[in-house]
Amino acid sequence: MKSTRHAASTCASVLAFALAGLLTACSDNTESNVAANNTPENAAADTTAAATSTLKHENVAYVSNQDGGVAVIDLDTMQSIGSIDPQAGGPRGIGITDDGKMLVTANKDEGNISVLDPATGALIRKIEIGKNPEFVRVKGNLAFVTFEPSSEGGPPPKPGQAAAEEEEDDDDDGPKEPARVAIVDLEKGQKLREIVGGPETEGIEFSKDGSKVIITNEADNTITVHDINTGELLKTINTEQYGKRPRGIKISPDGNTYVSTLEFGNSFLVMDSDFNPVRAVKTGVGPYGIAYGPDGERIFVASNKDQVLQVFDAKTYEKIKDVPVGKRCWHFTFTPDNKDILLACGRSHEVLVIDADKLEVTKHLGEKELPWGIITYPKSTGSLDAPV
Fold first, then answer.
1. Paired sense of beta strands 319-324 and 308-313, if any
2. How many CB atoms lie within 10 A of CB 258?
3. Class of residue 240 by CB neighbours under 10 A (exposed 0-12, middle 13-18, buried 19+)
4. For 302-337, what is each residue's pLDDT tens digit?
5. Cis bond leading into 91, ω under 30°?
6. Phi/psi at 305 (nearest 5 deg)?
7. Residues ≥6 apart with Cβ < 8 Å to 133
8. How much is the pLDDT for 236?
9. Average pLDDT, the chain
């Protein structure tokens, strides 16, 4: 009997020991899995997912970063609050629908656009466009996107490579076939049709009545006017006598005047409502982004090579002020309340906040990744967009 009790006791001890070992192994495995999931990469992913799922999407600015994603800036605090991943390389042009439900980026490296949900950061869809998509304007639920069939495309060269200096202007010089403007239905996810422009189509603007689309064509020094529905060429304006390489173009708030920067002419061209040239106005070196102020009384020009944001009187065209800025500052936007201007400075890797009345830089928002374009929601006046 004693032997039986001893055997039973021994068996129980063995079982207890085995169970303890099993529990320890399970515990070790669980801890190992937790440790594996708590790597910096996964922690960052979790943080990004949490941030994008709760991103503020009212009274914000969106900044496309060529070497990153879309930065989101809270305009109430003037702080960067997160980012949205377009899941594509080289985002440049950027736009948003009138209702703020779809954000669009033109992705150079992949030849497509990303359609994103600003509220969650989720990718809704990608839509193929063509080689080297660059400039985006969104009108209603239609996106107008420039692209260049003859472009070499692909990722940009690294700093120090022979092509890097040319890439500073984001262009591929050489023999060109005409560029195009793709018109895309964002809700259906379909490219509806194309408008044939000139070589290196760059800026896009709309007439006051919405019946015409006006585009700048860098390589052949023209501005062309097209029927927005059929794409028919209605008028060609040769800028060569006023200056070469038209880039940015904007309409005045009253619809009576158009202005277009002439990058190699170091000036901007003024045209009347029938697209007749009126005069050229001298600027700093390398002007690109341009826009009227919200009240139409001033014209703002980003003179890239001189590293200034220039302000002109819209009636006399006299220069009011040069605001010193950073490197490769191409595009800018007013805030929806018109109190500040946000300027994206690519080679400074920052966004500058400028007081719209004092015309002074009040804040630097750094740690950006080669910012290219900037817009706001609600939509506001700027070099890439306009209020509804």
1. antiparallel
2. 25
3. middle
4. 999 999 999 999 999 999 999 999 999 999 999 999
5. no
6. -70, -30
7. 92, 93, 106, 107, 108, 111, 112, 113, 145, 146, 147, 182
8. 98
9. 86
